[in-house]
């Protein structure tokens, strides 16, 4: 019998790629998603890639009774990957209560159900946002965390602490938090990818939409930072590579090879790329020019961050594979596919 994994937020951007990778190595996947930032068609696309249709239920994890019933009707789940969360930094400033409630209470409900229904393993989606603007680069897992820049970022920082404390007193629970740097790109099939609603906040969807003619111009937020070309530096990680890190984390928990019952890892490439570098690499990889202009800095942006991935490399045995150029090409292929561009 295949091992059963629950993926919350499994129709979302990173979640859908993780479902594909889990199914590829034989896990039976059940998805819970409230479709607040994704569509049910993603399940069809996952089936097209994998040849397997994951289980799928639509509800919000704040519906505790419903979640309880889910675990009763789906016994034998060995692990959960908890992706489901709100993730728009700017919106979180406008709606802090909605962010704290959704992101924290959903995690608490999941943890309650894990104890009650004897689900021993959890992989949690965290973010490099927990580091704020670090004093030293690259950031290691022990780099001191800074105060969060936004309610969204704070939900990730608090979630990590919550997890640590809950695991501490629940010997039956094991958890791994993965601190993602900047996930970009799409599945090579171009059947799944990032589907932002409305105007994209994130860089790469804005670039691909500008290249596709949907947006007139990309605004680059600042060229007066203390970086090689003045634009901000991030560690852009391919979404399929990132998805694979989740499979490794799940296997580590299921096979009891974790060293501590709560562990956390940086998941990035280890390389910083500036906004201008990303734009120019995109242009070179795709042959499409991106209309851009330099504008003022965006409030809350940090200057520079990239990962030290030694822990993920040596302890998890995971390493990013895809180049920035190939990853940007995959993002463009996805954009072309959904816009019917030849
Ligand atoms: C942010 C969050 C991160 C979160 C992610 C998901 C912080 C510090 N980071 O990442 O935790 O997981 O969003 O939504 O809160 N840029 C432009 N023009 C644009 C868009 C972006 O120049 O139109 C620049 C930004 O200034 C930044 C870089 O591109 O330097 C990346 O921005 P973005 O894709 O929004 O990600 P982060 O802000 O790094």
Instruction: Classify the helix fraction into a percent range.
Output: 40-55%
According to CATH, the homologous superfamily of the domain at 4-183 and 237-267 is NAD(P)-binding Rossmann-like Domain
Structural category is alpha/beta
Biggest sheet strand line-up: 3-2-1-4-5-6-11
Look at the structure and give the mean pLDDT.
97
Q: The biggest beta sheet, please?
A: 7 strands, parallel
Q: What is the H/E order?
A: EHEHEHEHHEHEEHEEEHEEHEHH
Kindly estimate the percentage of residues that lie in beta strands according to DSSP: 15-25%
Supply the CATH class of the domain at 4-183 and 237-267: Alpha Beta
Topology-level CATH name of the domain at 4-183 and 237-267: Rossmann fold
| Unreliable spans | none
* Termini gap: 43 Å
| Overall morphology | globular
Question: What is the radius of gyration computed over CA atoms, rounded to a whole number of angstroms?
Answer: 19 Å
Counting DSSP E segments of at least 2 residues, the number of strands comes to 13
Ligand kinds: uridine-diphosphate-N-acetylglucosamine
Name the CATH architecture of the domain at 4-183 and 237-267. Answer: 3-Layer(aba) Sandwich
Secondary structure tally, helices = 11
